[in-house]
Amino acid sequence: MSAQTELPQIGTESTGSCCSPSGSCHSDAAGSAEGAVTTVYQVTGMTCGHCEGAVSNEISGLAGVMSVKAAASTGQVTVVSAAPLDEEEVRAAVDEAGYELAGRA
Asked: Are 25 and 17 in contact (CB under 8 A)?
């Protein structure tokens, strides 16, 4: 015979996820930082999530970058930074990931 223990449910009225009350596992905090600069770049050659990750990782390593969101479906990479980035540095980071920066979207 086994005993069954019922644990109290905490916060069951919330519609959020385990990560945040808004239901998203991603924070937009970096995008809403005061003085932040958002720049959208067009990158050619991305076809999948691995491509997105490779580009995001390289650009994230640049000084001042707060967040990066790459979308293979559109080829667009949105970068939020503390100040405007040097486009040649972004180009070099994208090149290091194995893709080509076409310019700003």
From this structure: yes
Nearest one of 84, 81, 71, 78 to 44, comparing CA atoms: 71
pLDDT, tens digit (0-9, with 9 covering 90-100), for 13-40: 444 434 444 444 444 444 456 899 999 9
**What is the structure's pLDDT at 34?**
82
CATH number for the 35-104 domain, one of 3.30.300.330, 3.30.70.100, 3.40.50.10350, 3.30.43.10?
3.30.70.100
Q: Are 93 and 61 in contact (CB under 8 A)?
A: yes
pTM: 0.69
Which amino acid is it at 79? V
